[in-house]
Request: fold
Amino acid sequence: MTHSGRAPAAVAVGDTHPARVIGPITQTDIVRFAGAGGDFNPLHHDPEFAARAGFPRPIAMGQFQAGLLAGWVSDWLGVEHLRSLEVRFVAPLMIGDAVTVGGEVVSVEQREAGQLATVELRATKDDGSLVVTGRADVVVSAS
Amino acid sequence: MPVNADFEGRSYPSTKPYGVSAAKIREFAEAVGSSDPVHVDRDVARARGYADVIAPPTFAVLIAQQCDRQLILDPEAGIDYSRVVHGEQKFVHHRPLTAGDSIVGTLHVDGVREAGGHAMVTTRTELATESGEPVCTATSTIVIRGGE
Reply:
């Protein structure tokens, strides 16, 4: 099936897109994702449970951070052109943390699926420490 | 090891169909800040060649995590969920999940290994339509922390 609506973007190695700042993360942000994603582990909303697990405050679920990374890259290059996305969970994101999501194109290659750009992704806290890293392979147009 | 190593190579029966809805796609997109109108506006999605709104890239986890529960809750696997930490997640998209899809998931345990007293389990969920069209492959690696 051919989709003609949104053309693949023309990108080159080193290209980027304005980073997105989210937060400071609130309990409401986490609960909204819990409802949307169906993860009701009390670690993400019960302060006493989080304390027993060794966290001063409830933490967001890794899938929340993964979703933020994915949303940034798919809003930029088109969700229908995203072929794969992998994320590595590095450190917890706690209520009160702000997170900056961004990345850049690290390679553009002709592959079986077409012209594919690899975008390296990262979410960092205000102190620069990593929360989650990832990479996405996205179909782009030959430039 | 805090998991039964014999589970490597095991597969589970396909799950009951999950109905992908426009309302759930909208909720998910709003929760992760995906602002492309293709997630919420059917006319935009149609103009881009889809029958209805399409999901953000990690929406597949809703279905994949239901599949993973078969392993985590399997008493024979011996996994203590309170010791589980999510390590990595990968999605390979064959096409976007679309409102109106009816999706079944098949869980495969691809790897069980030990590292430094912890267990690492890699699972792969193949998501397909009820008629067998592949939609997404979701791979997840969890770490089950060993005892102190």
Summary: The beta strands of chain A are 20-22, 82-89, 99-111, 114-125, 130-139. The mean pLDDT of chain A is 93. The longest helix of chain A spans residues 62-77.
